[in-house]
Amino acid sequence: MSDIPASATSSGRTSAEILTQPSLWRRAAEAAAGAPGLPRPGERVAVTGCGTSWFMAQAYAALREAAGQGETDAFAASEFPVSRTYDRVVAITRSGTTTEVLDLIGEVRERWEVLAVTATPGTPVVPAADDTVVLDFADEESVVQTRFATSALAFLRAGLELHGRGPGIRTVAEAAADAESAIASPLPAAALAAEQWTFLGTGWTYGLAQEAALKMREAAGAWTEAYPAMEYRHGPVSITGPGRVTWIFGEVPAGLAEEVTATGGTLITSEGDPMADLIRAQRLAVAVAEGRGLDPDRPRNLTRSVILKG
Q1: What is the H or E stretch that residue 230 is in?
Q2: Phi/psi of residue 268, each to 5°?
Q3: Which of 3, 219, 273, 287 is least crowded, fewest Cβ atoms below 10 Å from its Cβ?
Q4: Bridge partners, 225 (sequence order)
Q5: What angle do CA 178, 133, 286 make, to 5 degrees?
Q6: Confidence (pLDDT) at 10
Q7: Nearest Cα residue to 307 out of 54, 113, 125
Q8: Angular region, 232: left φ>0, alpha ψ -120 to 50, beta rest
């Protein structure tokens, strides 16, 4: 187990970028007001990306369907079923250079409208898509994605707000306020001391759970898993126990807290908007990495963009 203090902070690049998210979400929401290419209600939409961007795609797809704005699927770009029929594809790519995303756009653009959401102007995705939104204010120096991913989701959430949110979903403005609290609050001591972390979500927050687990793997090389909350009982609960944490984004299904407690594990729940709670998981990943003597600014075996050789 780690002995990282609950008040752990970092002065590294990744940590500094994590702290900028509330203001960036507000800027992203403003950008959505007049943005070209956002899905219109009733369109059949597919959202795609790789890694972190794929998990943000999952979250947005579930939010859009919950808002009643149309059937929405999410796929990793390398696994996109191109034989299906859609009205629009939304491609999320921080670098604008990811090979699988560019290949997919090239294959489907003649059939469907394509909106690209990127952080980097002047990259190949800009001319490849029909419409491009460049959130360059949310770009990162870090290899590990944090603020661009959540800003892209904030942008897409704000696009939904133009036509009406789903039940129980906060506005982006409310999420940004919650994010300020997530930055200021101490990290849970049990999470800092744990040896294993399982992240859970329901509906749109399952994508956030996947992303939280990925951050822990990327930054800290940690043993983490992620599941839909109701699937947790179907096997994954077997790894829960003393010194292990189950962290759920959003609503806690009935009986789950009792099951975690019975194993001797620790349950951590969301504080405020689940997207804001993801910031706590990002901070945790940095703290655990540094507690293990790792540099989250230089994650092992990772690069900013995956560009495959032809």
Answers
A1: none
A2: -120, 130
A3: 3
A4: 198
A5: 45
A6: 55
A7: 125
A8: alpha
| 3-state class (DSSP) for residue 271 | coil
Tell me the CB-side half-sphere exposure of residue 235, using CA atoms within 13 A: 5
* Residue with token string 């191109």: 82
Alpha carbons 135 and 270: distance in angstroms, whole number: 27
| SS3 label, residue 5 | coil
Q: Which residues contact 18 (CB under 8 A, 6 or more apart)?
A: 146, 147, 183, 279, 282, 283, 286
pLDDT of residue 207: 98
85 burial via Cβ count (<10 Å: 0-12, 13-18, 19+): exposed
**Helix (H) or strand (E) segment spanning residue 11:** none
Q: Could you tell me the strand order of the sheet in which 196-201 lies?
A: 224-228, 196-201, 244-249, 266-269
Q: What is the pLDDT of residue 34?
A: 87
Q: 275-290 burial string, b = 16+ CB within 10 Å, else e? A: bbbbbbbbbbbbbbbb
Greatest extent of the chain over all pairs of C-alpha atoms, in Å = 55
Q: What is the mean pLDDT of the chain?
A: 93
- Whole-angstrom distance, CA of residue 285 vs CA of residue 218: 8
Q: Over the stretch 220-263, which tens digit does the pLDDT of each residue have?
A: 999 999 999 999 999 999 999 999 999 999 999 999 999 999 99
- pLDDT beyond 50 at 201: yes
CA nearest 255: which of 267, 243, 242?
A: 267
User: For residue 251, what is the DSSP state?
Assistant: P
How far apart CA 142 and CA 91 sit, in angstroms, is 21
Give the C-alpha separation, 81 to 104, whole Å.
Answer: 10
**How far is CA 196 from each of CA 73, 105, 220, 242, rounded to the nearest angstrom?**
31, 38, 12, 10
**Residue 42, Cβ neighbours under 10 Å: how many?**
12
- Residue 4: per-residue pLDDT: 43
119 alpha-carbon distance from chain centroid? 15
The residues that bridge with 118 in the sheet, in sequence order, are 93, 134
For the chain, the C-alpha Rg in angstroms (whole number) is 19
